Amino acid sequence: MYRDANDVKTIYQLAIALLVLSLVLAVSLFFNAVLYLRRPDRIVVDKSSGKVEMINDRTFGATASTAMTPDRPGKDDKIYLAKVFAEALYKIDPQTRAKDIERALKMMVPSSATVFGKYLKESGVLETQRAESWQSVWEVLDVSIDQADPYLVRLDGRQKITKLVNRMVKEETKTVKLQIKVVADPKGRTDENQHLGFLIQKYEYKDLE
Length: 209
What we know:
By secondary structure, this protein is an alpha+beta fold. The chain folds into two domains: 55 residues; 134 residues, Roll (Nuclear Transport Factor 2, Chain: A). It contains five helices and seven strands.
């Protein structure tokens, strides 16, 4: 019993076509994977001069208005971290209070966060604020880096508090003086440190009249 020669030829041609299509599909999948995994091109152009400063990791120098430098958290990051930390503690919104305190604790060195969390629990501060429906407006009056210690931020702020005591609304305003010591986070910029590269080591406060 013999197969028709034309059938054999057709089967052979189909097999070759299937092999070619499989090869093309494999090559296509390979290049798709390469393009998916490859980092996108990063091109930095100074709009004022039209000069290309960087393509991917190749730096082409600086222009009169801009320069490409390594990312190093600095003075402005320390000040901003102190502002965000102080706001989380002193700007009180009953609906977001728990999340604000959690955010403040994450911004601290773990050992300091443990100590501060223990203080908040033992002092009953949060329970009192919740029971009296505290809400407050927080305003930064002055903030600066200590001249003798570049990792110490001095911040003065005003807190205007509204609370409900014995079903009577009471308002009070106090000025707070903070000293916030920061340290460089070895992990760099993270969600916990608000992408600022520093953590709160400790902070001290003093109520002013």
